[in-house]
Amino acid sequence: MDVSKDKLLRDVYSLTIADGRKVVAEVATAEALESAKNVVNFVIITAETNNTGIITVGASTVVGAVGTRRGTPLNAGDTVSLGGVDLNEVYLDTTVNGDGVTYLYIK
Fold first, then answer.
1. Per residue in 34-52, pLDDT tens?
2. From CA 84, how far away is CA 6, in angstroms rounded?
3. Using the 8-state DSSP alphabet, how is residue 61 labeled?
4. Would residue 10 be called left, alpha or beta, if left means φ above 0 and alpha means ψ between -120 and 50 degrees?
5. What is the pLDDT of residues 65-103, one digit of tens each?
6. 3-class DSSP state for residue 60?
């Protein structure tokens, strides 16, 4: 095996998988998915299946309210995937206090 293939295999197999959960406390208050810098290769964000409102995923400018919405809206159980992001720069807003997401990432 040449050196470049060996390095690629080491890089791939040294990846870590982890998960988390984030509840948005208040409507119209964008909250970061994580409170500290966490650059990941890939993240899958899923709106909790018991949500009664809409969770919107976006940048710090995300807005969940339907009339001024910015970002990607998720109904209960919907999923969005992002690659090469810092989880501290992925924000959530909601239309119902206490709705949330679960997420799985690889880094």
1. 999 999 999 999 999 999 9
2. 23
3. T
4. alpha
5. 999 999 999 999 999 999 999 999 999 999 999 999 999
6. coil
Report residue 71 CA to chain centroid gap: 12
Nearest C-alpha neighbor of 79 from the set 94, 57, 96:
57
Evaluated on CA atoms 26, 28, 32, 35, the torsion sign reads negative
pTM: 0.88
Residue carrying structure tokens 């949330």: 100
CATH assignment of 16-106? 2.60.120.770
- Name the residue among 100, 88, 99 with its Cα closest to residue 43: 88
Take residue 88 and report the two structure tokens written for it.
């501290």
Strand partners, 72: 57
* Both structure tokens of 35: 């409170």
Angstrom CA distances, 6 to 12, 101, 107, stand at: 10, 37, 19
Alpha-carbon separation of residue 53 from 48, 80, 100 (angstroms): 10, 16, 10
